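PROTEIN DATA CARD
Card holder: Intraflagellar transport protein 57 homolog
Chain length: 429
Origin: Vicugna pacos
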Amino acid sequence: MAAAAAVVTPSGLEDGVSRSRGEGAGEVVVERGPGAAYHMFVVMEDLVEKLKLLRYEEDLLRKNNLKPLSRHYFALPTNPGEQFYMFCTLAAWLINKAGHPFEQPQEYDDPNATISNILSELRAFGRTADFPPSKLKSGYGEHVCYVLDCLAEEALKYIGFTWKRPAYPVEELEEETVAEDDAELTLNKVDEEFVEEETDNEENFIDLNVLKAQTYRLDMNESAKQEDILESTTDAAEWSLEVERILPQLKVTIRTDNKDWRIHVDQMHQHKNGIESALKETKGFLDKLHNEISRTLEKIGSREKYINNQLEHLVQEYRAAQAQLSEARERYQQGNGGVTERTRLLSEVTEELEKVKQEMEEKGSSMTDGAPLVKIKQSLTKLKQETIQMDIRIGVVEHTLLQSKLKEKSNMTRDMHATVIPESAIGSY
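Structure generated from the sequence above:
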């Protein structure tokens, strides 16, 4: 039952899961036991029980035309899209059931936004959700079961539901009575015991010589005791109590075999007599019912003929009015078609008129506007300034080029004079 289920945390399940502190780094390492993989099946079963307590079948499934959940619906992957839609629908219904207003998600909503809204509502209830939201996109798994289980618990708290201790019925001590069914012996059991006794006697076979010796000894002892008077030492009251105690066990009942053909024949005769007696009574009732129905049908037929005769002229007037109405409808449809066609033409002409007006306004504004002329003047002055600047740069470049040429020419003449050898120097050699 869901009352005995432990509280499940999203990061680790308590059943078969233990935490240990990591050495050095101080991180928490989750050690999952062998039963942790199956704990979500237990949580899913508890969730189904809680949903039944919340009457989700009447309030949710019938209104939205949904199928009821199985015991392991969110624990095993079947259809991820259907499971995710069912998860969002259930979560929204549980949040509303817990007292928080929440819009029902639609089929084409963003799944990331829906999951974030559900997790925010879960944290608003004081529950932890330290796992990535992508774990809920698949629509199944331990995190899905955990979220729905937490929301179901909050809904149960909101409606004031509390788990009570189980009330065990007090078992009354029955008196020891001897059951007649167990005490009665059937004929088959008597035959079986008789056969067993015969087999035991055959197995415990005694030699004839030994038997003769024993009988001789018994005869000698009885002959020695014949002179004594036999007296009973048993109390009569004890004897009667023992007889009453043993009497139910001495009954022998022969049970009838249901497979006997005679019993079947007797049953057939009994059923036949019962059917015949019931048929006589029901046949009278059916005849009376048949007569009443036939009389009622005759009355209905006569009334129908009378009504048709009385209302024949009204029926003709109604038919004529129907014909006139159909003709008026046809004329109306034809006129409506002409109106729609003319309305379409009017809209087209209006659009063309708007276009022409817009073009005329643009041309008029361009003719009266002096902005283009101002722009032209500004561009001309700018061109003149750029022309003057270019002339100055050209003059500077020409002057620089002339200087470089003059300098090059002076260098060439100097080099030429330096290479000429004087004649006075040649005569001394």
